[in-house]
Amino acid sequence: MNRKIDSIVKQAKQSRKQRAQRNLSAAPTLQSLYQKSKQKEESLRVWGPYAEGDSRFRLKIAENGVERSLKFQTQEEAESVKEELLQKYAKTTRKTVAEALPEWLEELAPCVKPSTIGNNQKMVAQLPQNLVMGQLTEEQASKLYQQQVERISAHTGRRIATATQHLFLWVARHFWVWAIGKGYAKMNPWLKVRRVGKANVGKSQLRIDETRKLEAVAMQRAQNGDVPALGVLLMLYLGLRQGEVAARVVRDIDDDGRVLWIPAGKTRNAKRRLKIPEQVRPLVLKRIQGKKPDELIFYPPNHKTYHCGYFVAQLARLCRLADVPVVCPHGLRGMHATLALEGGATSDAVAKALGHGSFEMTKTHYASASSVANNESCRVAAALAGQSPRSELDRLLNQLGQNELESLLLKLQSSGRSGSDFEENRAI
To answer: What's the pLDDT score for residue 214?
Structure first.
């Protein structure tokens, strides 16, 4: 009987020893934890150290859903190992450019225009598609950008435009910013890459007499039912973007054809309300007559998607009919800014009319440098002469007769504005 008990105890001890050995071999060692995995990296979490008596400190480690413990003789040793583990295993998910791009574009889709999605996709297509995002270094990023600077365009046979390679760098930076947020990269290697060259700003503009010729031809064509010509006139009169003209529907025409609403646009500041010039108001009212509120006004309704080349081609046609140099719609927008400044409009008013947040954008890309300088010099001269908009208004009102003042007051009252300011400025 005793022999049987001794045999059972011996067998249990051997089994316990074997299990202990298996558990010891299964427990993670520092070497195994520090070694880099060539497969997909998993997250690592570390808790502690927890004091167990006066001379033992324990770290709790969770890796791949399995929890283990490591014990140390001092708290300092436990803290040091914890910091090393977290640094070593603060790894990123292995994602190539080709794998991450569709995910990025999908997240961008609700926030940006399809054209922006297309541009981003074209720029990222210039990167090696098998490139692991978390492994790109600053030196490699600099070399990739230099390749873009020297890249030859398949369409022109020359180096790509400076603005294009600047766009490539901008897209790459934002792509990696997104990747860092997703855990696909730890740092942005594009931040220290410096742009090469200076991009051209602004578009070619017509001269003032040439603009008058274009306006005359466009007006004549619009009166004869040429719808794109009417859209071109609005670009010139109101400084609209071609996309803002193409997107207008019947309900955007308000107050019996006096007001044009721009509910949204390229930027946050594009939302605005503009006054339609009286010379085109009858043409606009005629155009919307009998149409449904959501019908397009200036763009062919049979076109399923907006094409940016539509008004480019229409404006080129009108320029050739007017016998003036061919310009793009952005050139008309710039001409609007130039003429507005030459006419005495404030820089702030011009910027708001164009849908800009500040005049700096207007000054850099739209208004000619000479018109900005002329506008500023006129204001300086007026200030030195002791003139102000208020004093100039006083002078003009004093030149009006009694009947003219009363007529002006009635017009102001009929439009909902008060004439008290004008009355108090009238010289007695």
So the answer is: 92
CATH at residue 230: 1.10.443.10
Q: From CA 350, how far away is CA 276, in angstroms rounded?
A: 16
Residues 153 and 239 in one domain: no
Contact 96, 77 (CB under 8 A): no
Q: What is the pLDDT of residues 102-136, one digit of tens each?
A: 999 999 988 887 878 989 999 999 999 999 998 89
Query: Residue holding tokens 């600053």?
Result: 138
Residues 221 and 363 in one domain: yes
Q: Are residues 63 and 154 in the same domain?
A: no
pLDDT of amino acid 397: 67
Concatenating the DSSP letter of every residue in 360-403 gives HHHHHHTS-HHHHHHHHHHHHHHHHTT--HHHHHHHHHHTS-HH
pLDDT digits (tens, 9 = 90+) for 288-330: 999 999 999 988 876 666 677 889 899 999 999 999 999 888 8
Give me the percent of the chain exceeding a pLDDT of 70.
64
Label residue 314 exposed, middle or buried (CB < 10 Å: 0-12, 13-18, 19+).
buried
pTM of the model: 0.49
Same domain, 331 and 357: yes
80 domain residue, yes or no: yes
Return the DSSP state at 107.
H
Domain, as residue range, for 156:
97-182
Split into its structural domains, the chain has a count of 4
Residues 79 and 135 placed together within one structural domain of the fold: no
Measure the CA–CA gap between 94 and 41, rounded to whole angstroms.
Answer: 7
Q: Which pair of structure tokens corresponds to residue 283?
A: 């043409």
